[in-house]
Amino acid sequence: MTANSFHPPERTLMGPGPSDVHPRILEALSRPTIGHLDPVFVGMMEEVKGLLQYAFQTENALTLPVSAPGSAGMEMCFANLVEPGDTVVVCKNGVFGERMKENVERCGGTPVMVEEEWGAPVDPARAEEALKAHPEAKILAFVHAETSTGAQSDAATLAKLARDHDCLTIVDTVTSLGGSPLKVDEWGLDAVYSGTQKCLSCVPGLSPVTFSQRAVDAIQARSTKVQSWFLDLNLVMGYWGSGGGKRAYHHTAPINPLYGLHEALTILQEEGLENTWDRHQRMHEALKAGIEAMGLSFFVEEPHRLPQLNSVTIPAGIDDEAAVRTRLLEQYNLEIGAGLGSMAGKIWRIGLMGHSANPTNILNCLGALEGVLSDMGADITTGKAISAAMAKLG
């Protein structure tokens, strides 16, 4: 076989992730590779930790990017905090709550499930019932921003319930970090993981995590070894230690992706976290106006709707929703996402994340979607979506 250089097409990424990567981040990725123990690189690692503390709104010393995607950040949290025999209350309102359950079981723990309808947030009252019924529970685990549906749960209230019942929290913020309010210290979250490819507009492959002192104390008090060598925080911290001093070799860090993350977090700091949250909300309002003017509806009720992940119900007249996505990709170089699990074939997931959350993308998406749906005979209103969105954009 004769191989040629791979040159991907230029797409507009408006699915559930990855999002469009900012040009500054692409440039950062191309900078010269240096050693992962080089003093200059170690200095940059310290800056990444500080920038992540800002993004998470925390002063947790144990804040770092795991050298693997968000799923590894999830596994790090469970592998370090769950020991065989532990009871963990797991809240499930979509695909990623189910993955939490799987992690508990693989760590030898016993999951107690609090199951909600897909598209609904976690009900704090039902979580509290489970905590009362299981006073032996060690952890309450939940998804702050459920990527499979676009529903957002009340992390602050759930964290308070956990503290009231002497439980730690493990929280999935893969889709919320950098896109909607997330305040780790103020809300009292303990073990929090995220990803770089969503609202940070960086490339996939790194997982920002942060651990409270309560979580660190629990890890240090374990009676058994962490089941994963690679994700054992006791070992990883020898490399990601504090102060920028000498590091113990653990693994070869993904040097150039970390350049990209540093740039992504620098861009976040330049815009300002509150401004970033506000931009995502404003772009959502514009997309919402256009979607509703077309006669389409949202799957998640408005009070619980994530601005950066919009689940849109597939309209009447469309029997093959995949054909719509294929035409958008082939004719407009536009990617939107399909539904997962029980929502497959019922919703599209339109992402407004990071660099993708801008007026040009919204107007292009609405125009392309209206054109394809109209041509395929969908029961929609035409000619109104763009003007409705522009009225919101000002």
UniProtKB/TrEMBL annotation:
GO terms for molecular function: alanine-glyoxylate transaminase activity; L-serine-pyruvate transaminase activity. GO terms for biological process: glycine biosynthetic process, by transamination of glyoxylate. Pfam families: Aminotran_5 (PF00266). InterPro entries: Aminotrans_V_dom, Aminotrans_V_PyrdxlP_BS, PyrdxlP-dep_Trfase, PyrdxlP-dep_Trfase_major, PyrdxlP-dep_Trfase_small, SP_NH2Trfase/AEP_transaminase. The lineage of its organism: Bacteria, Pseudomonadati, Pseudomonadota, Gammaproteobacteria, Thiohalorhabdales. CDD domains: AGAT_like. Its cofactor is pyridoxal 5'-phosphate. Substrate binds at residue 349. This is Alanine-glyoxylate transaminase / serine-glyoxylate transaminase / serine-pyruvate transaminase. Residues 1-20 are annotated as: Disordered. The keyword Transferase applies. Residues 44-340 form the Aminotransferase class V domain. Keywords: Aminotransferase, Pyridoxal phosphate, Pyruvate, Transferase. SUPFAM superfamilies: PLP-dependent transferases (SSF53383). The modification N6-(pyridoxal phosphate)lysine is found at residue 198. Belongs to the class-V pyridoxal-phosphate-dependent aminotransferase family.
